[in-house]
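Pipeline run #58 for the internal structure catalog. This entry was flagged by the ingest filter as a single-chain record with no existing model, so it goes straight to prediction. Upstream metadata was stripped on purpose; only the residue string is passed forward. Reviewer on rotation: M.T. Logging verbosity set to normal.
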Amino acid sequence: MMNFRAFLAPLRRWWWLVLGTTVIACISSFLLLREVPSIYQARATLMVGRTMAVLNPNSNELFLGRQLARVYADMAERAPIRDAVQERLGLEELPEYEALVLPDSQLIEIVVTDTIPERSQAVAEELSRQLVLASPGNPESADQDRARFVDEQLSYLEVKIQETQEEIAQRQTELAEMVSARQIEETQLDLIALQDKLNTLQANYAALLSTTREEAINTITVFEPPTLPDEPVGPKVGMLVAISGAMGLLLGSGASYLLEYMDDTLKSVSQITEGLDLPILGYIPKVKALDGKAGGPPLALQSDPDSATAEAFRLLRANLLFACGESIPRIIQITSLGAAEGKTTVAINLAASLERADMRVLLVDSDLRRPEIHRALELSNDAGLGDAAMDGLDLASVMQRVDTPPISVITSGSRVEDPTEIMGSERYSHFLDTLRASADFTILDSPPLLVADALVLASKVDGVLLVIEPGRVSISAARAIIEQLANAKAKLLGVVVNRIPRGSGFPIGEPHYLSYLSRTDRRPEKDEKGTREESTAGPHGV
Protein backbone atom coordinates (compact mmCIF):
# COMPACT_ATOMS: atom_id res chain seq x y z
CA MET A 1 0.00 0.00 0.00
CA MET A 2 2.79 2.41 0.86
CA ASN A 3 4.55 1.73 -2.42
CA PHE A 4 1.32 2.33 -4.32
CA ARG A 5 0.73 5.58 -2.47
CA ALA A 6 4.30 6.64 -3.19
CA PHE A 7 3.68 5.84 -6.85
CA LEU A 8 0.61 8.10 -6.85
CA ALA A 9 2.35 10.88 -4.93
CA PRO A 10 3.50 12.80 -8.06
CA LEU A 11 -0.07 12.77 -9.39
CA ARG A 12 -1.39 14.11 -6.11
CA ARG A 13 1.32 16.77 -5.95
CA TRP A 14 0.89 17.88 -9.58
CA TRP A 15 -2.87 17.31 -9.79
CA TRP A 16 -3.43 20.80 -11.21
CA LEU A 17 -1.05 20.04 -14.09
CA VAL A 18 -2.76 16.73 -14.89
CA LEU A 19 -6.19 18.35 -14.66
CA GLY A 20 -5.08 21.34 -16.73
CA THR A 21 -3.68 19.30 -19.61
CA THR A 22 -6.80 17.11 -19.65
CA VAL A 23 -9.19 20.07 -19.69
CA ILE A 24 -7.16 21.96 -22.29
CA ALA A 25 -7.01 18.91 -24.54
CA CYS A 26 -10.78 18.36 -24.27
CA ILE A 27 -11.69 22.02 -24.87
CA SER A 28 -9.22 22.41 -27.75
CA SER A 29 -10.41 19.27 -29.51
CA PHE A 30 -14.06 20.25 -29.04
CA LEU A 31 -13.51 23.73 -30.46
CA LEU A 32 -11.54 22.30 -33.37
CA LEU A 33 -14.06 19.54 -34.16
CA ARG A 34 -16.93 22.01 -33.98
CA GLU A 35 -15.56 23.68 -37.12
CA VAL A 36 -15.14 20.40 -39.02
CA PRO A 37 -18.04 19.73 -41.46
CA SER A 38 -20.12 16.58 -41.16
CA ILE A 39 -19.04 13.57 -43.22
CA TYR A 40 -21.48 11.32 -45.12
CA GLN A 41 -21.04 7.93 -46.76
CA ALA A 42 -22.91 6.43 -49.72
CA ARG A 43 -22.62 2.68 -50.40
CA ALA A 44 -23.30 0.66 -53.54
CA THR A 45 -23.03 -3.14 -53.84
CA LEU A 46 -22.25 -4.96 -57.11
CA MET A 47 -22.28 -8.67 -57.94
CA VAL A 48 -19.89 -10.44 -60.29
CA GLY A 49 -21.32 -13.34 -62.34
CA ARG A 50 -24.72 -15.03 -62.08
CA THR A 51 -23.91 -18.09 -59.98
CA MET A 52 -26.21 -16.91 -57.21
CA ALA A 53 -29.13 -17.30 -59.64
CA VAL A 54 -28.14 -20.90 -60.43
CA LEU A 55 -29.66 -23.67 -58.36
CA ASN A 56 -26.51 -25.78 -58.35
CA PRO A 57 -23.45 -23.60 -58.93
CA ASN A 58 -20.15 -25.44 -59.04
CA SER A 59 -17.07 -24.53 -57.03
CA ASN A 60 -15.09 -23.47 -60.11
CA GLU A 61 -17.68 -20.84 -60.98
CA LEU A 62 -17.69 -19.51 -57.41
CA PHE A 63 -13.88 -19.34 -57.28
CA LEU A 64 -13.69 -17.61 -60.66
CA GLY A 65 -16.34 -15.11 -59.57
CA ARG A 66 -14.32 -14.16 -56.47
CA GLN A 67 -11.17 -13.69 -58.51
CA LEU A 68 -13.04 -11.48 -60.97
CA ALA A 69 -14.46 -9.46 -58.07
CA ARG A 70 -10.92 -8.60 -56.93
CA VAL A 71 -10.04 -7.50 -60.45
CA TYR A 72 -13.11 -5.25 -60.74
CA ALA A 73 -12.44 -3.76 -57.27
CA ASP A 74 -8.93 -2.87 -58.38
CA MET A 75 -10.26 -1.42 -61.66
CA ALA A 76 -12.60 0.88 -59.71
CA GLU A 77 -9.62 2.75 -58.28
CA ARG A 78 -7.73 3.05 -61.56
CA ALA A 79 -7.47 6.16 -63.69
CA PRO A 80 -9.80 5.09 -66.57
CA ILE A 81 -12.75 4.59 -64.20
CA ARG A 82 -11.95 7.72 -62.17
CA ASP A 83 -11.59 9.89 -65.27
CA ALA A 84 -14.83 8.56 -66.73
CA VAL A 85 -16.71 9.36 -63.50
CA GLN A 86 -15.21 12.87 -63.28
CA GLU A 87 -16.10 13.60 -66.88
CA ARG A 88 -19.62 12.22 -66.51
CA LEU A 89 -20.36 14.24 -63.34
CA GLY A 90 -18.32 17.32 -64.29
CA LEU A 91 -16.14 17.17 -61.19
CA GLU A 92 -12.58 18.43 -60.98
CA GLU A 93 -11.76 15.96 -58.26
CA LEU A 94 -13.54 12.94 -56.88
CA PRO A 95 -14.21 12.62 -53.15
CA GLU A 96 -12.50 9.88 -51.21
CA TYR A 97 -13.79 6.40 -52.02
CA GLU A 98 -12.76 2.76 -51.90
CA ALA A 99 -13.90 -0.48 -53.54
CA LEU A 100 -13.86 -3.51 -51.25
CA VAL A 101 -14.48 -7.17 -51.97
CA LEU A 102 -16.64 -8.58 -49.21
CA PRO A 103 -14.98 -11.61 -47.57
CA ASP A 104 -15.61 -14.97 -49.29
CA SER A 105 -18.15 -13.56 -51.73
CA GLN A 106 -18.58 -12.21 -55.26
CA LEU A 107 -19.88 -8.89 -53.93
CA ILE A 108 -18.05 -5.58 -54.33
CA GLU A 109 -18.91 -2.68 -52.04
CA ILE A 110 -18.14 0.86 -53.17
CA VAL A 111 -17.99 3.37 -50.29
CA VAL A 112 -17.86 7.09 -51.11
CA THR A 113 -17.08 9.57 -48.31
CA ASP A 114 -17.93 13.25 -48.81
CA THR A 115 -19.17 16.30 -46.95
CA ILE A 116 -22.11 16.62 -49.39
CA PRO A 117 -24.52 13.67 -49.19
CA GLU A 118 -25.95 14.18 -52.70
CA ARG A 119 -22.50 14.16 -54.25
CA SER A 120 -21.48 11.01 -52.40
CA GLN A 121 -24.58 9.23 -53.73
CA ALA A 122 -23.99 10.45 -57.29
CA VAL A 123 -20.34 9.36 -57.30
CA ALA A 124 -21.17 5.91 -55.90
CA GLU A 125 -23.87 5.49 -58.54
CA GLU A 126 -21.63 6.54 -61.40
CA LEU A 127 -18.74 4.36 -60.22
CA SER A 128 -21.10 1.39 -60.27
CA ARG A 129 -22.27 2.29 -63.76
CA GLN A 130 -18.74 2.66 -65.11
CA LEU A 131 -17.73 -0.73 -63.73
CA VAL A 132 -20.75 -2.34 -65.38
CA LEU A 133 -19.84 -0.63 -68.67
CA ALA A 134 -16.27 -1.89 -68.35
CA SER A 135 -17.43 -5.51 -68.20
CA PRO A 136 -17.83 -7.54 -71.44
CA GLY A 137 -21.44 -8.35 -70.60
CA ASN A 138 -22.69 -4.81 -70.22
CA PRO A 139 -26.02 -4.06 -71.91
CA GLU A 140 -24.67 -0.97 -73.69
CA SER A 141 -21.81 -2.68 -75.57
CA ALA A 142 -21.39 -2.53 -79.40
CA ASP A 143 -22.26 -6.25 -79.78
CA GLN A 144 -25.94 -5.73 -79.23
CA ASP A 145 -26.81 -6.68 -82.83
CA ARG A 146 -25.05 -10.01 -82.38
CA ALA A 147 -26.80 -10.52 -79.06
CA ARG A 148 -30.16 -9.86 -80.68
CA PHE A 149 -29.34 -12.32 -83.47
CA VAL A 150 -28.41 -14.97 -80.91
CA ASP A 151 -31.65 -14.34 -79.07
CA GLU A 152 -33.62 -14.73 -82.29
CA GLN A 153 -31.85 -17.98 -83.08
CA LEU A 154 -32.53 -19.28 -79.61
CA SER A 155 -36.18 -18.48 -80.02
CA TYR A 156 -36.28 -20.27 -83.39
CA LEU A 157 -34.51 -23.30 -81.91
CA GLU A 158 -36.91 -23.38 -79.00
CA VAL A 159 -39.84 -23.56 -81.45
CA LYS A 160 -38.19 -26.29 -83.54
CA ILE A 161 -37.28 -28.32 -80.48
CA GLN A 162 -40.85 -28.14 -79.24
CA GLU A 163 -42.25 -29.10 -82.65
CA THR A 164 -39.83 -32.03 -82.95
CA GLN A 165 -40.70 -33.27 -79.48
CA GLU A 166 -44.42 -33.12 -80.34
CA GLU A 167 -43.85 -34.97 -83.62
CA ILE A 168 -41.88 -37.67 -81.83
CA ALA A 169 -44.65 -38.09 -79.32
CA GLN A 170 -47.24 -38.37 -82.10
CA ARG A 171 -45.23 -40.98 -84.08
CA GLN A 172 -44.75 -43.02 -80.91
CA THR A 173 -48.52 -43.04 -80.38
CA GLU A 174 -49.11 -44.15 -83.94
CA LEU A 175 -46.46 -46.87 -83.60
CA ALA A 176 -48.34 -48.39 -80.72
CA GLU A 177 -51.46 -48.90 -82.89
CA MET A 178 -49.71 -50.37 -85.98
CA VAL A 179 -49.93 -54.04 -86.89
CA SER A 180 -48.20 -54.03 -90.26
CA ALA A 181 -44.53 -54.95 -90.08
CA ARG A 182 -43.64 -52.63 -92.91
CA GLN A 183 -45.39 -49.65 -91.30
CA ILE A 184 -43.74 -50.39 -87.99
CA GLU A 185 -40.29 -50.47 -89.61
CA GLU A 186 -40.88 -47.22 -91.47
CA THR A 187 -42.19 -45.49 -88.33
CA GLN A 188 -39.20 -46.66 -86.31
CA LEU A 189 -36.83 -45.23 -88.93
CA ASP A 190 -38.77 -41.93 -88.78
CA LEU A 191 -38.44 -41.86 -85.00
CA ILE A 192 -34.68 -42.36 -85.22
CA ALA A 193 -34.41 -39.49 -87.70
CA LEU A 194 -36.58 -37.24 -85.50
CA GLN A 195 -34.49 -38.10 -82.43
CA ASP A 196 -31.29 -37.23 -84.29
CA LYS A 197 -32.88 -33.95 -85.36
CA LEU A 198 -33.93 -33.21 -81.75
CA ASN A 199 -30.40 -33.91 -80.48
CA THR A 200 -28.93 -31.58 -83.08
CA LEU A 201 -31.39 -28.80 -82.22
CA GLN A 202 -30.69 -29.16 -78.49
CA ALA A 203 -26.91 -29.11 -79.03
CA ASN A 204 -27.18 -25.95 -81.13
CA TYR A 205 -29.42 -24.38 -78.50
CA ALA A 206 -26.95 -25.17 -75.71
CA ALA A 207 -24.05 -23.82 -77.75
CA LEU A 208 -25.85 -20.55 -78.44
CA LEU A 209 -27.08 -20.28 -74.86
CA SER A 210 -23.50 -20.45 -73.51
CA THR A 211 -22.69 -17.23 -75.38
CA THR A 212 -25.49 -15.23 -73.80
CA ARG A 213 -25.44 -13.14 -70.58
CA GLU A 214 -27.63 -15.63 -68.78
CA GLU A 215 -24.78 -18.14 -68.60
CA ALA A 216 -21.84 -15.72 -68.50
CA ILE A 217 -19.54 -15.55 -65.45
CA ASN A 218 -17.60 -12.43 -66.42
CA THR A 219 -20.48 -10.05 -65.89
CA ILE A 220 -21.16 -7.44 -63.22
CA THR A 221 -24.49 -6.08 -62.11
CA VAL A 222 -25.69 -3.61 -59.49
CA PHE A 223 -27.00 -5.66 -56.57
CA GLU A 224 -27.81 -2.73 -54.26
CA PRO A 225 -27.86 0.84 -55.63
CA PRO A 226 -26.61 3.69 -53.37
CA THR A 227 -29.16 5.60 -51.31
CA LEU A 228 -28.99 9.21 -50.16
CA PRO A 229 -27.29 9.22 -46.70
CA ASP A 230 -29.32 11.14 -44.14
CA GLU A 231 -27.10 10.67 -41.07
CA PRO A 232 -23.45 11.75 -40.90
CA VAL A 233 -20.85 9.13 -40.02
CA GLY A 234 -18.42 11.64 -38.55
CA PRO A 235 -16.73 13.32 -36.97
CA LYS A 236 -17.63 11.52 -33.73
CA VAL A 237 -17.13 14.50 -31.47
CA GLY A 238 -17.75 12.75 -28.17
CA MET A 239 -15.37 9.89 -28.84
CA LEU A 240 -12.65 12.16 -30.25
CA VAL A 241 -12.94 14.57 -27.31
CA ALA A 242 -12.67 11.61 -24.92
CA ILE A 243 -9.57 10.36 -26.75
CA SER A 244 -8.04 13.84 -26.63
CA GLY A 245 -8.80 14.05 -22.92
CA ALA A 246 -7.17 10.68 -22.35
CA MET A 247 -4.09 11.83 -24.26
CA GLY A 248 -4.02 15.04 -22.24
CA LEU A 249 -4.30 12.97 -19.06
CA LEU A 250 -1.40 10.77 -20.13
CA LEU A 251 0.65 13.82 -21.11
CA GLY A 252 -0.03 15.56 -17.80
CA SER A 253 0.71 12.39 -15.84
CA GLY A 254 3.95 11.85 -17.74
CA ALA A 255 4.94 15.48 -17.17
CA SER A 256 4.22 15.16 -13.43
CA TYR A 257 6.45 12.09 -13.15
CA LEU A 258 9.15 13.83 -15.19
CA LEU A 259 9.01 16.92 -13.00
CA GLU A 260 9.08 14.71 -9.93
CA TYR A 261 12.12 12.88 -11.27
CA MET A 262 13.91 16.15 -12.00
CA ASP A 263 12.94 17.64 -8.64
CA ASP A 264 15.51 16.70 -6.00
CA THR A 265 14.09 18.89 -3.24
CA LEU A 266 13.22 17.57 0.21
CA LYS A 267 9.55 16.65 0.02
CA SER A 268 9.02 13.33 1.80
CA VAL A 269 9.62 11.74 5.19
CA SER A 270 12.15 9.26 3.83
CA GLN A 271 14.16 11.96 2.05
CA ILE A 272 14.50 13.91 5.29
CA THR A 273 15.12 11.04 7.70
CA GLU A 274 17.31 8.94 5.41
CA GLY A 275 18.82 11.62 3.19
CA LEU A 276 19.75 13.95 6.06
CA ASP A 277 19.99 11.34 8.82
CA LEU A 278 17.94 13.53 11.15
CA PRO A 279 14.81 12.76 13.19
CA ILE A 280 11.59 14.63 12.48
CA LEU A 281 10.34 16.21 15.72
CA GLY A 282 7.31 18.04 14.36
CA TYR A 283 4.85 18.18 11.50
CA ILE A 284 3.17 21.58 11.07
CA PRO A 285 0.29 21.87 8.57
CA LYS A 286 0.06 24.64 6.03
CA VAL A 287 -2.23 27.40 7.34
CA LYS A 288 -2.22 30.78 5.65
CA ALA A 289 -3.23 32.82 8.69
CA LEU A 290 -0.65 31.05 10.84
CA ASP A 291 2.15 32.39 8.69
CA GLY A 292 1.06 35.96 9.34
CA LYS A 293 -0.10 36.59 5.76
CA ALA A 294 -3.80 36.99 6.43
CA GLY A 295 -3.76 39.39 9.35
CA GLY A 296 -3.35 38.82 13.07
CA PRO A 297 -0.46 37.35 15.06
CA PRO A 298 0.66 33.83 14.08
CA LEU A 299 -0.31 32.17 17.37
CA ALA A 300 -2.15 28.90 16.77
CA LEU A 301 -2.24 27.98 20.48
CA GLN A 302 -3.93 31.27 21.30
CA SER A 303 -6.24 31.80 18.32
CA ASP A 304 -7.47 28.20 17.97
CA PRO A 305 -6.16 25.88 20.72
CA ASP A 306 -8.32 22.96 19.52
CA SER A 307 -7.01 23.04 15.95
CA ALA A 308 -4.75 20.49 14.30
CA THR A 309 -2.06 23.17 14.05
CA ALA A 310 -2.10 23.83 17.79
CA GLU A 311 -1.88 20.10 18.46
CA ALA A 312 1.05 19.87 16.06
CA PHE A 313 3.01 22.38 18.16
CA ARG A 314 2.14 20.47 21.33
CA LEU A 315 3.56 17.33 19.69
CA LEU A 316 6.65 19.29 18.69
CA ARG A 317 7.14 20.34 22.30
CA ALA A 318 6.66 16.78 23.59
CA ASN A 319 8.95 15.23 20.98
CA LEU A 320 11.60 17.85 21.65
CA LEU A 321 11.59 17.09 25.38
CA PHE A 322 11.59 13.33 24.78
CA ALA A 323 14.42 13.56 22.26
CA CYS A 324 16.62 15.59 24.60
CA GLY A 325 16.11 13.29 27.59
CA GLU A 326 18.27 14.28 30.56
CA SER A 327 20.37 16.83 28.66
CA ILE A 328 17.69 19.42 27.96
CA PRO A 329 19.09 22.30 25.88
CA ARG A 330 18.57 25.69 27.49
CA ILE A 331 19.18 27.72 24.33
CA ILE A 332 17.57 26.40 21.14
CA GLN A 333 18.26 28.01 17.80
CA ILE A 334 15.38 27.89 15.29
CA THR A 335 16.75 28.17 11.78
CA SER A 336 16.06 26.94 8.27
CA LEU A 337 17.94 25.86 5.17
CA GLY A 338 16.46 28.64 3.06
CA ALA A 339 14.61 31.90 3.43
CA ALA A 340 10.86 32.20 4.10
CA GLU A 341 10.33 28.65 5.37
CA GLY A 342 8.33 29.75 8.44
CA LYS A 343 11.01 29.55 11.12
CA THR A 344 9.68 32.67 12.91
CA THR A 345 6.21 31.14 13.17
CA VAL A 346 7.69 27.91 14.54
CA ALA A 347 9.82 29.84 17.06
CA ILE A 348 6.85 31.86 18.40
CA ASN A 349 4.50 28.90 18.70
CA LEU A 350 7.16 26.62 20.22
CA ALA A 351 7.89 29.28 22.82
CA ALA A 352 4.16 29.59 23.58
CA SER A 353 3.83 25.80 23.83
CA LEU A 354 6.75 25.53 26.26
CA GLU A 355 5.33 28.35 28.37
CA ARG A 356 2.02 26.48 28.66
CA ALA A 357 3.99 23.53 30.06
CA ASP A 358 4.79 25.75 33.08
CA MET A 359 8.29 26.73 31.94
CA ARG A 360 10.02 30.08 31.92
CA VAL A 361 10.52 30.88 28.26
CA LEU A 362 12.44 33.68 26.60
CA LEU A 363 11.90 34.36 22.89
CA VAL A 364 14.79 36.20 21.22
CA ASP A 365 14.94 37.55 17.67
CA SER A 366 18.57 36.90 16.71
CA ASP A 367 17.98 37.65 13.02
CA LEU A 368 19.79 40.97 12.86
CA ARG A 369 19.37 41.23 9.10
CA ARG A 370 15.62 40.70 8.59
CA PRO A 371 13.93 40.63 12.00
CA GLU A 372 10.29 39.51 12.06
CA ILE A 373 9.26 38.81 15.67
CA HIS A 374 8.46 42.41 16.55
CA ARG A 375 6.16 42.64 13.53
CA ALA A 376 4.47 39.31 14.22
CA LEU A 377 3.82 40.16 17.91
CA GLU A 378 3.29 43.89 17.30
CA LEU A 379 6.10 44.99 19.61
CA SER A 380 8.49 47.92 19.61
CA ASN A 381 11.94 47.32 18.17
CA ASP A 382 13.71 50.39 19.51
CA ALA A 383 15.98 48.34 21.78
CA GLY A 384 16.78 44.68 21.69
CA LEU A 385 19.39 42.01 21.10
CA GLY A 386 21.86 44.21 19.22
CA ASP A 387 21.80 46.86 21.95
CA ALA A 388 22.19 44.34 24.80
CA ALA A 389 24.99 42.40 23.11
CA MET A 390 27.04 45.39 21.89
CA ASP A 391 26.17 48.25 24.24
CA GLY A 392 26.00 46.14 27.42
CA LEU A 393 22.38 46.95 28.26
CA ASP A 394 20.90 44.62 30.85
CA LEU A 395 18.16 42.19 29.86
CA ALA A 396 15.48 43.99 31.83
CA SER A 397 15.90 47.12 29.72
CA VAL A 398 15.44 45.30 26.39
CA MET A 399 12.99 42.61 27.47
CA GLN A 400 9.30 43.00 26.63
CA ARG A 401 6.39 41.05 28.05
CA VAL A 402 3.64 39.58 25.92
CA ASP A 403 0.34 38.83 27.61
CA THR A 404 -0.98 36.32 25.08
CA PRO A 405 0.88 34.09 25.46
CA PRO A 406 2.64 35.29 28.63
CA ILE A 407 6.23 35.04 27.46
CA SER A 408 9.21 37.35 27.56
CA VAL A 409 10.51 38.63 24.24
CA ILE A 410 13.72 40.32 23.15
CA THR A 411 13.49 41.80 19.68
CA SER A 412 16.45 42.37 17.36
CA GLY A 413 16.87 45.99 18.37
CA SER A 414 19.06 48.52 16.57
CA ARG A 415 20.43 47.52 13.20
CA VAL A 416 24.13 46.61 13.22
CA GLU A 417 26.68 46.78 10.46
CA ASP A 418 28.23 43.31 10.73
CA PRO A 419 25.96 40.72 12.39
CA THR A 420 28.47 37.92 11.81
CA GLU A 421 31.13 39.77 13.78
CA ILE A 422 28.70 40.28 16.67
CA MET A 423 27.66 36.60 16.71
CA GLY A 424 31.28 35.45 16.82
CA SER A 425 32.44 37.87 19.51
CA GLU A 426 33.29 36.87 23.07
CA ARG A 427 30.82 39.45 24.34
CA TYR A 428 28.01 37.66 22.53
CA SER A 429 29.06 34.36 24.13
CA HIS A 430 28.76 35.97 27.58
CA PHE A 431 25.38 37.36 26.51
CA LEU A 432 24.21 33.84 25.65
CA ASP A 433 25.35 32.68 29.11
CA THR A 434 23.17 35.40 30.60
CA LEU A 435 20.21 34.22 28.53
CA ARG A 436 20.87 30.63 29.59
CA ALA A 437 20.64 31.57 33.23
CA SER A 438 17.56 33.77 32.91
CA ALA A 439 15.03 31.19 31.66
CA ASP A 440 14.31 27.49 31.40
CA PHE A 441 14.26 27.75 27.62
CA THR A 442 15.57 30.46 25.35
CA ILE A 443 14.26 30.22 21.79
CA LEU A 444 16.42 32.04 19.25
CA ASP A 445 14.82 32.94 15.92
CA SER A 446 17.94 33.09 13.79
CA PRO A 447 18.67 33.83 10.15
CA PRO A 448 18.59 30.94 7.67
CA LEU A 449 21.74 28.89 7.24
CA LEU A 450 22.40 30.62 3.94
CA VAL A 451 24.25 33.35 5.86
CA ALA A 452 27.22 33.05 8.14
CA ASP A 453 25.39 34.52 11.16
CA ALA A 454 23.32 31.36 11.65
CA LEU A 455 26.33 29.07 11.30
CA VAL A 456 28.35 31.03 13.86
CA LEU A 457 25.37 31.11 16.25
CA ALA A 458 24.84 27.36 15.83
CA SER A 459 28.31 26.70 17.21
CA LYS A 460 27.45 28.56 20.46
CA VAL A 461 23.91 27.38 21.32
CA ASP A 462 22.84 24.17 23.08
CA GLY A 463 20.81 22.81 20.21
CA VAL A 464 19.63 23.62 16.69
CA LEU A 465 16.13 22.92 15.42
CA LEU A 466 15.95 22.89 11.62
CA VAL A 467 12.75 24.10 9.91
CA ILE A 468 12.16 22.65 6.45
CA GLU A 469 9.32 23.45 4.08
CA PRO A 470 8.74 20.54 1.64
CA GLY A 471 9.87 21.24 -1.89
CA ARG A 472 12.00 24.32 -1.12
CA VAL A 473 15.60 23.07 -0.75
CA SER A 474 17.43 20.35 -2.68
CA ILE A 475 18.85 17.33 -0.92
CA SER A 476 22.38 18.11 -2.05
CA ALA A 477 22.21 21.69 -0.74
CA ALA A 478 20.76 20.49 2.57
CA ARG A 479 23.53 17.91 2.99
CA ALA A 480 26.19 20.54 2.29
CA ILE A 481 24.73 22.89 4.93
CA ILE A 482 24.40 20.11 7.50
CA GLU A 483 28.01 19.16 6.85
CA GLN A 484 28.98 22.76 7.64
CA LEU A 485 27.03 22.54 10.89
CA ALA A 486 28.89 19.36 11.75
CA ASN A 487 32.20 21.12 11.08
CA ALA A 488 31.07 23.91 13.42
CA LYS A 489 30.32 21.23 16.07
CA ALA A 490 26.69 22.34 16.24
CA LYS A 491 24.22 20.00 17.92
CA LEU A 492 21.33 19.28 15.57
CA LEU A 493 18.27 18.25 17.57
CA GLY A 494 16.06 17.39 14.62
CA VAL A 495 13.79 18.72 11.93
CA VAL A 496 10.44 20.50 11.96
CA VAL A 497 8.58 20.00 8.70
CA ASN A 498 6.56 23.19 8.22
CA ARG A 499 3.70 24.23 5.92
CA ILE A 500 2.75 20.68 5.01
CA PRO A 501 0.00 20.70 2.35
CA ARG A 502 -3.00 18.43 2.71
CA GLY A 503 -2.52 15.01 1.15
CA SER A 504 1.25 15.41 0.82
CA GLY A 505 2.14 12.06 2.39
CA PHE A 506 3.30 13.52 5.71
CA PRO A 507 1.31 12.39 8.78
CA ILE A 508 -0.17 15.81 9.50
CA GLY A 509 -1.30 16.08 5.87
CA GLU A 510 -3.46 12.96 5.94
CA PRO A 511 -7.22 13.67 6.04
CA HIS A 512 -7.95 11.15 8.83
CA TYR A 513 -5.13 12.62 10.92
CA LEU A 514 -6.42 16.17 10.54
CA SER A 515 -9.97 15.01 11.21
CA TYR A 516 -8.93 13.44 14.51
CA LEU A 517 -6.80 16.39 15.60
CA SER A 518 -9.49 18.93 14.69
CA ARG A 519 -12.13 17.50 17.02
CA THR A 520 -13.72 20.06 19.31
CA ASP A 521 -14.50 17.89 22.31
CA ARG A 522 -11.00 18.26 23.80
CA ARG A 523 -10.89 19.74 27.28
CA PRO A 524 -9.34 23.24 27.35
CA GLU A 525 -5.83 23.57 28.65
CA LYS A 526 -5.20 25.17 31.99
CA ASP A 527 -3.31 28.43 31.82
CA GLU A 528 -2.72 28.96 35.51
CA LYS A 529 0.84 28.78 36.73
CA GLY A 530 1.66 25.75 38.76
CA THR A 531 -0.64 23.50 36.73
CA ARG A 532 1.48 21.61 34.27
CA GLU A 533 -0.26 20.79 30.97
CA GLU A 534 -0.43 17.15 29.98
CA SER A 535 1.58 16.46 26.86
CA THR A 536 1.39 13.19 25.02
CA ALA A 537 3.46 12.41 22.01
CA GLY A 538 1.36 9.38 21.09
CA PRO A 539 2.09 7.44 17.94
CA HIS A 540 2.92 10.60 16.03
CA GLY A 541 6.17 11.32 17.79
CA VAL A 542 9.69 11.06 16.51
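catalog note: Residues 144-215 form one domain.
catalog note: The radius of gyration is 50 Å.
status: ready for reviewer M.T.
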